[in-house]
Amino acid sequence: MRAPDFATVRWESPMPTRRELANVLRVLAMDAVQKAGSGHAGAPMGMADIAEALWRGFLKYNPANPLWWDRDRFILSNGHACMLLYALLHLTGYAVSMEEIKNFRQLGCRLAGHPEHDPSIGIETTSGPLGQGLANSVGFALAEKMLAAHFNRPQLPIVDHYTYVFLGDGDLMEGVSHEACSLAGTLKLGKLIGFYDDNGISIDGEVKGWFADDTPKRFEAYGWHVQSIDGMDGEAVAGAIRAAQAETQRPSLICCRTVIGFGAPTKAGTSAAHSDPLGVEEVALAKQRLGWTAPPFEVPAALREAWNHESAGRAAEERWQELFGRYRGAYPDLAAQFERRMRRGLPETWQSMAQSAIAAARAETAVQATRKSSRAVLDVIGAQMPELFGGSADLTTSNETWHNAARVLTAEDASGDYLHYGVREFGMTAAMNGLALHGGFIPYGGTFLTFSDYARNAVRMAALMHQPVILIYSHDSIALGEDGPTHQPVEHLNSLRLVPNLTLWRPADALETAVAWCEAIEHAEGPTALALTRQGVPQLPRESLSAEGIRRGGYVLLDCAGVPECIVISTGSEVSIALAAVRTLQSRGRRVRLVSMPCTQRFDAQPAAWRDEVLPPAVSARVSVEAGSTGLWWRYVGSRGRVIGLDHYGASGKGPEVMRKFGFTAEHVQAVVEELAGG
Amino acid sequence: MRAPDFATVRWESPMPTRRELANVLRVLAMDAVQKAGSGHAGAPMGMADIAEALWRGFLKYNPANPLWWDRDRFILSNGHACMLLYALLHLTGYAVSMEEIKNFRQLGCRLAGHPEHDPSIGIETTSGPLGQGLANSVGFALAEKMLAAHFNRPQLPIVDHYTYVFLGDGDLMEGVSHEACSLAGTLKLGKLIGFYDDNGISIDGEVKGWFADDTPKRFEAYGWHVQSIDGMDGEAVAGAIRAAQAETQRPSLICCRTVIGFGAPTKAGTSAAHSDPLGVEEVALAKQRLGWTAPPFEVPAALREAWNHESAGRAAEERWQELFGRYRGAYPDLAAQFERRMRRGLPETWQSMAQSAIAAARAETAVQATRKSSRAVLDVIGAQMPELFGGSADLTTSNETWHNAARVLTAEDASGDYLHYGVREFGMTAAMNGLALHGGFIPYGGTFLTFSDYARNAVRMAALMHQPVILIYSHDSIALGEDGPTHQPVEHLNSLRLVPNLTLWRPADALETAVAWCEAIEHAEGPTALALTRQGVPQLPRESLSAEGIRRGGYVLLDCAGVPECIVISTGSEVSIALAAVRTLQSRGRRVRLVSMPCTQRFDAQPAAWRDEVLPPAVSARVSVEAGSTGLWWRYVGSRGRVIGLDHYGASGKGPEVMRKFGFTAEHVQAVVEELAGG
Fold first, then answer.
1. Which residues, given as ranges, of chain B have pLDDT below 50?
2. B464 close to B636: Cβ distance less than 8 angstroms
3. How is chain B split into domains, by residue range?
């Protein structure tokens, strides 16, 4: 690396240098972190020159319309460096004021300690949990490639943008970086360009003691185009971006050697620069070295002007609007579909599709695994919803995620709507988040319920960001049988129900499955998980109103005459077991009600009137039946109730034998009810 | 690859060929899967030649004493290939009968659908969740390297064995393979040797569509020694093992080109061979091609004899016992320590250490974060427990996992007892599982509670295998403040409590922290998680008996005179908030009891007498206070109770402001109690 040129003090000149422009980012990061009393200035100070080169020379965006569909996507995977992003947003003209910068990390301020998804101010994704921004970016780039393949027409490239992602050592140590980048290389996402902040430092110190990868070689092994440059040389960065853009087949990684906390006299290049304020004195000395004389939170006019992107951004979008206008003229139907999908509207035919799927499910009479009932829904809606994008983490036939009209997406042909994600649960889910965030897709993806563990933090991020991804979790209990305890979920149903803003459905038969799918499609404000059986389950008896009951998350499936002595509450494959028990009890004159509760969260959100009608407060003898952990069921059965579940691991053996061994039989349910309600 | 030589029919000769020996494995796998009606024969059939070369030519083991401390460790990371392992165990002379092989995958049989940790029959780890066996193997190899550095003396290498691991495409697609193998390369685990079953097939079909990595290059980038061979050529495998052993610095990956389902006439080389029985006809034809004429589950005597390893194994162990005898003579103290550690005994001084730690905690008066109280315990016990092996996923100072006597482990010096794992939560946890499984270590490792998500399935595997690993999860609530929702756990406390056989402690002050640590050390039968605060908490008032109460998981911290009108139950940092509320209420004449419940699971396991004394069934007005999701608390507060918690994400802001915003104040607790118990 060349000797550092901290600054060339020539603000009076009309054209500030790249370094001077980058220093604005450095100074704002230092000052904001200092004022907040916490935060991370080191990474912004190291990556400032990269940001300057990218944002001023290449990035396509319009600060006045952050939602412009064909903007380049910028992802900050090393989310702790968020002051870099906030400074960029402020300087380029987004609606981010200096007052907000001063309130960085304070309660109520949009400029949180890590970036929080808010596209209205240019924050494309929530990041901070390392590796996931990078994995999101693979989804963004895949979305772009697929939309371009589907919509673009000769001379009318309405979808044509890059996905740029900043990342650090931490992102690259995380396993999800492997899953996502291996997939990106395989899929030839040529318009994905990553900038690796290779500063040699992580929180514990110099990374060489724990991270000795030859990262360029690693990414070459994934089929990426890799460059290694001095990341503090704006010209070098610009050259590398041009080369990365010129490479249209392979995704690009630009390995940028940088100095964390560049400019800070004693802390630069050390882990002391990673987090916490640098200190008043260090900041003052750093400003001196950077040639900065303006007071805190003031940006000299020449620099401010050079950074402002409002008119250039407006012009860029205007060119695209003109293009899109011509496209609309030539291809009105496609244009309408594009607009609908980018606005997250459902197809006009959605209601009739949903009704068909539900009617078909209602007509089903065979014993059928709910994973197969799920496939039946896909067979109805898959062909008519181009935005539905499926896949599985290498369990396509097990998860039943394929459908009759599905076509496999390949590196060479991006017109498919189904991706074999490989054995990459975490990468798949984080990429699905990117697809949803980009817009234009409702992604669904499958794995076994147990392996939701692998993706758990990506599921959380989908929920935190309110993204409508659909998680297909088949093999949802010990009833899966011979594959044994490693594959048998126990705690997973309850554990997923605990994730705020994630909706979990565990349907009991084809009709509940179809309703759950429709609810998932219509739920635009968060992710939905569908827990589905491996084994066949019978179709339940249905009264005319039960589809509505299903939608409400919990409803009376089989009632008794008079006030119940006892209520049995069950979900999924255990409903038919509970039903057999309740029928026997009723035949013996017992007043027992059966409630099916496919979605506890949806039930909890109902008005008290509905909840009290289904579970009358006066009836305190209640028994829940679910082949999973007991923990959350006490809420529904109350102090006097009983929970039939299991708080230990399962066993390898034939499914029905395993279920019997652990008490999931009609006889056992019956015995528990009788014991509770009196013999 | 050379043209396949399916078999050379010369069983009558005294020396069967390698291929004939390998075919025994193939046939047993086919027959067992066929009889079970489910399972995976394809991978065993592809890897049989590798297994033959390794187990007959290199592996050091004594079937009569599967626990021999210096045995080579054999890990089957592609656990679905378990019939390969079971066949090997049976043939070489472990106590695994042909009857058991015939009962493969049946309820009650030890030969489960995926290998279940049972070292008494040579199953070193539970595998099946892909990538984790590989990551375990890194822990195994690290344990060997560290024990060798600590115990071996000139001419007396009592610790000197290899770790061999079989793995497939699925293992290599999983992100945890990146974390673990990058770490293994950095740490120069030269005695770790992996065999990659490169058969080009995963469940969804030919992997080239979703897994195009240049795997040799990828592993070279990690600093591994890599060879590529024909994995169906036993001689080539043997040669590669010799070369891998000759490379003492770098871990080795032997990429073995194989054919899944080798021998099966129509299914070999396709995903149809991955799982499910091949079918009666296909099995018959395969046996024909393999030159196999014996009836199912019968092994011709010459083959059986050639496979049997009992006398060779006994001789191998005898040589080591003789060596260890000389070692014991020369270094009796070290020998005793080695034996103690391998038997999982605690140091003789343990009780006095524990008492010191508890006494020091009891004497603490300052406001102190429980993560710092945890560090104080480590400072007491760290120097005196050589088996205690610490680390953090790049958050050492945040997690307070370092201690005064700790020394960093490096590639060059394996005498340290602290590892900077890097930003690799999943790899860290799975490697810790390997360390514990190997024996000789009590591993502890830290990350933020939120990022337990990343490691979740490894935590589950520790629990499933009953391994005593200690998980240090600091920053355990929204009170961490400015880092915001991505870093603020909400659902995690309850979600971890749901994992069967994982014990979660959330201590409220220094004393509870010290007791929790001691309980964790003494709990040899499963993992323990310690949820610790970032922020300072006051020391609670203590009566003489409360250490005993803490051990019981829940106890009365502050009682009132007479029968309580209301009981407040709290954990961790909220206990002091609840305490302030209860004191105010008591000062107003209200009869309110405060229960501290640092470990709900431990409390649940107490006799009813204790539970009813702490939470008298007659007192139904109960309020729980925990800055996490509400789900599990209904069990403790009952139908009439109130749960103060949060079922939504947190916010970025100063910790105390965030806590106030979401109702975690004494005033709010007080108001809820008053409302519940009557004004």
1. 1-3, 9-11
2. no
3. 38-313, 350-531, 551-677
Amino acid identity at A3: A
Distances (CA, A) of A640 to A104, A592, A668, A675, B607: 50, 16, 18, 12, 19
Give the H/E segment covering residue A603.
helix A600-604
CA angle B294, B297, B298 (to 5 degrees): 45
Buried b (16+ CB within 10 A) or exposed e, B95-111: ebeeebbbbbbbbebbb
**Reported pTM:** 0.98
Residue A545 has pLDDT above 70, yes or no: no
Spatial separation of the C-alpha atoms in residues A660 and A322, rounded to whole Å: 67
Look at residue A167 and give its three-state secondary structure: strand
Query: What six digits make up the tokens of B656?
Result: 């105390």
* Cα separation values, A187 from A139, A177, A191, A425, A508, Å: 11, 15, 11, 17, 37
Report yes or no: A647 at the B interface, CB cutoff 8 Å.
yes
Residue linked to tokens 């080798």: B262
Distance of alpha carbon A27 from its chain centroid, rounded? Answer: 33
Contact A431, A145 (CB under 8 A): no
Nearest to residue B621, comparing CAs of B559, B679, B678?
Answer: B678
For residue B221, give the chain A residue with the closest CA.
A214
pLDDT tens, A377-435? 999 999 999 999 999 999 999 999 999 999 999 999 999 999 999 999 999 999 999 99
Q: Per-residue confidence at A1, pLDDT binned at 50, 70, 90?
A: very low
For the complex shown, is ipTM > 0.95? yes
> Taking Cα atoms as reference points, which of A242, A244, A189 lies closest to residue A434?
A189
Q: Do B482 and A36 touch (CB under 8 A)?
A: yes
Minimum CA–CA partner of A393 in chain B: B204
Query: Could you give the angle at the alpha carbon of A638 between the alpha carbons of A637 and A640, nearest 5°?
Result: 95
Rounded-to-integer distance, Cα A576 and Cα B268, Å: 40
| Homologous superfamily in CATH for domain A38-313 | Thiamin diphosphate (ThDP)-binding fold, Pyr/PP domains (3.40.50.970)
Answer yes or no: are the C-beta atoms of B535 and B562 closer than 8 Å: no
Distance from CA of A82 to the nearest CA of B (A): 11
Mutate to test the interface with A, among B250, B453, B615 (most CBs of A within 10 A): B453
Contact A631 B629 (CB under 8 A): no
Burial class (CB in 10 A: 0-12, 13-18, 19+), B646: buried
**Is B247 at the interface with chain A, CB within 8 A?**
no
CB-based contact (8 Å) between B130 and chain A?
A: yes
CATH class in words for A350-531: alpha beta
Q: Pick the closest to residue B260 from B1, B540, B48 (CA basis).
A: B48
Per-residue model confidence (pLDDT) at position A2: 45
Q: Does residue B466 sit at the A interface (CB-CB below 8 Å)? A: no
List phi, psi (to 5°) of A33.
-65, -40
The whole-chain average pLDDT of chain A stands at 96
Summarize the confidence of residues A559-569 as an average pLDDT.
97
Determine the average pLDDT of the residues in A605-633.
Answer: 97
Contact A169, A199 (CB under 8 A): yes
pLDDT digits 0-9 by tens, A16-47: 999 999 999 999 999 999 999 999 999 999 99
**B510-522 and B370-381 are packed helices; what angle lies between their axes, rounded to 10 degrees?**
50
Is residue A161's pLDDT more than 50? yes
Per-residue pLDDT, B546: 74
Q: What is the pLDDT of residues A529-543, one digit of tens each?
A: 999 999 999 999 986
Distance CA A264, CA A484 (A): 56
In the predicted model, is pLDDT for residue A12 greater than 80?
no
CA distance B629 to chain A (A): 7
> What class has domain A551-677?
alpha beta
